[in-house]
Amino acid sequence: MNSSVLITLIALGIVGALAFFAAIGFRGSGKVKDYIPNQSKYRNDDELETKTLDKTLTVAVIVASILTVMIPLYYLGEQNRQEEFVEAFDEVSVERGHHLYEEFGCGNCHGVDGSGGAAAYLEKRSGINVTWAAPAINNVFYRYDDEEVRYWLIYGRANSPMPAWGLEGGGPMNDGQLDDLIEYLHHMQISQQEELKSIESNISGALLRLETSELLVENEIIQQKALIDDIKKSPTDLPVIQKAVIDISELLNREGGIDTDEDGLTDSVEIELSTYSQNISEILGTSILNLDPDNEESVFGKKDSKVASSYLSELESYLINETIVFEGYDKFLNDAEVGLAFLEEALKNKLWDVSFEEIADTTFNGDLEKAQRAVGLFNAYCARCHTAGYSAGVAYTKKIASGGLGPALRAGRANIQFKEKQDMVDFIIKGSENGKAYGVNGVGGGKMPGFGAVLSQQDIELIIDYLRGMGPDA
Ligand code: HEC
Ligand code: HEC
To answer: Which residues, at least 6 apart from 133, have a Cβ–Cβ distance to it below 8 Å?
Structure first.
C-alpha cells in the first residue's frame, strides 16, 4: 500500500469516528423513555445556547482543522502517487531495455556492463581478421544526447562492426524497443566522477600502446605466419583427420569386452583411444586423452564417456574447418600472404609513431610531459574517429589525426576550420549538432561528441594546442 492511500484511509477513519461520537452526543441521553419521540421534552434554550452550541462548534472546528491538514497532505501524496506511477513505468521500460541489451548481444562487443570490449572484424585494407575496439557505452550520455545515441542505434556505424538496430537502418528494433534500450543505457551510466577518474588510466593506456607498438605488430606477424603454415598443412592434415573421425567413431561404437569402471567404455577402448589421441596430436595439435580403465572419471568431475564423445565432436568440427580451407586453398593462402605483406610493411613504416620531442619543441616550449599528455589524450579520446585504422589495432593505424569517421585534423587543418582557438574550444566542449554550422565552413552531423562533461578545459586546450601547432607538413 502506498503512502497516499494510507493517509486517505486514516483521514476517513478520523472523520468517521468524530461523526459517530457527535451523533451519540446529539441523541440526548434518553431521559424519558415512555414519550413517543416528537412529544418528548427537548433541551431548553439555556442549554441549547451554551452547552449544545459549544459542543457543535467544537466539533466543527476540529473537523475543519482536520480537513485543513488532510487536504494538503492528500495533495502531497497525490504528487507522490503520480511520480511513483511514472517511476514504475520507467522501471518496466528499463527492464525491457535490459532484456533487449542481452537478447541482441550488445554486451558481446561493449561488455556486459557497457564498459567497452572488442569485436571480430575483417579489416578492409589488409583483409586480416582483426579485433576491433568497441567503445564504452556506460558513459555515452556524457558525450551524446538521446537523439544522437538513437541515431547510432538506428543506423549502426557503417565500416565498423557496429550493426544497424533500428528498422529504418535495416535492423530488427521498432521505435518502442529503441526507447526501452535508451532507457536502459541511461540506467547503466556510471557517475560523472567515475568517468573523470578514468582519464589518467585512459591516457596511460594510450601511451602504453604507443610504447609497445612494435612488439604488438611483431606478435601479429608471428600469428599471421602460423596461419599461413596451417593453411599450407591442410592438404596433408585433411586425410589424417578424415581417417581419425572414422576410426574413433568405430572405436566408440565397439561392443563387448571388460569394462572395469563400468562407465560404458570398455578397458581396451579407453586404452586405444588414449594412444590414438596421442598419435594424431603429434600431427594435428589436437588434445590428448588419458583415460584410466579403473576410473570412470579419469579427470575429476568429468565422466570418461562424456570426455570421449566431446573429443569426437572436436575432431568433427576440425574436419569441417579443414575441408573449407582445403577447398579454398589458393584463395586462403593468397589472402593470408597479402595480409602478411601488409603487416611487414606496417612494421617498416611505423605510421603510428609520433615524436614527443618534436611536438614538445614545435608546440610546448620543449615541455616533453605536455607533449606526451596531449598525444595520450588525443589517442584515448579522439583517435578512434580521427585516425584511420586506430580501432583495428596498431598495425592498421595510419598517421595520427589522418581522418577516419571524422575529418583529418593533421597538418594544421584545425587552423583552417577554426580561425580562433576559442571557437575550437567551444566546438570541442559542445560537439557538433545536426545541421548546425561550425567553424568557418563546417556543417555538423551530430556525430562529433561533446567533451565538456568528459575532459577538463585544460586537457581540451592541450589537445587543441597540439592540433593547432601541427605544421603543414605534419
Ligand atoms: C558486433 C559488435 C557490436 C555489437 C553487437 C553492438 N555494437 Fe555498438 N558498437 C560497436 C563498435 C565497434 C562501435 C564503434 C564503432 C567505431 O569504431 O566507430 C560501436 C558503437 C556504438 C555506439 C556509439 C558510441 C560512440 O561513442 O561512438 C553506441 C551507442 C552503441 N554502439 C550501442 C550499442 C548497443 C545498444 C548495442 C546492442 C543493441 C550494440 N551497440 C551492439 C560494436 C558493436
Ligand atoms: C565518435 C567519433 C568522434 C570522436 C570520438 C571525436 N570526433 Fe571530432 N568529429 C567527428 C565527426 C564525425 C566530425 C564531423 C562533424 C560531424 O559530422 O558532426 C568531427 C569533427 C571534428 C572537428 C572539426 C574538423 C573540421 O575540419 O571540420 C574537430 C576539430 C574535431 N572533430 C576534433 C575532435 C577532438 C579533439 C576529439 C577528441 C577530444 C574528437 N574530435 C573526437 C567524430 C568524432
So the answer is: 116, 118, 384, 391
Q: What pLDDT was estimated at residue 433?
A: 96
Which helix H or strand E contains 107, and what residues bound it?
A: helix 106-110
Lowest mean pLDDT among 28-32, 225-229, 260-264, 331-335: 28-32
First to last CA, the chain: 69
The CATH homologous superfamily to which domain 356-469 belongs is: Cytochrome c-like domain (1.10.760.10)
Q: How many residues does the chain have?
A: 474
pTM for the predicted model, two decimal places: 0.80
**Quick one: which ligand is closest to 157's CA?**
1
111, 117 in Cβ contact below 8 A? yes
To test the pocket of ligand 2, the residue of 110, 139, 153, 386 to mutate (highest count of ligand atoms within 8 Å of its CB) is 386
Residue listed under C-alpha cell 530488427: 172
Instruction: Identify the pLDDT of residue 199.
Output: 98
Nearest CA to ligand 1 atom 31: 162
Residue spans of the domains in the chain: they are: 3-91, 119-197, 215-348, 356-469
Mean pLDDT of 291-296: 93
CB 210 within 8 A of CB 375: yes
Ligand 1 center from residue 214 Cα (angstroms): 28
Residue 274: closest CA among 238, 301, 307, 316: 307
Range among 22-26, 78-82, 357-361 rated most confident: 357-361
How far are the Cα atoms of 183, 184, 218 from residue 395, in angstroms, in the given order?
38, 36, 9
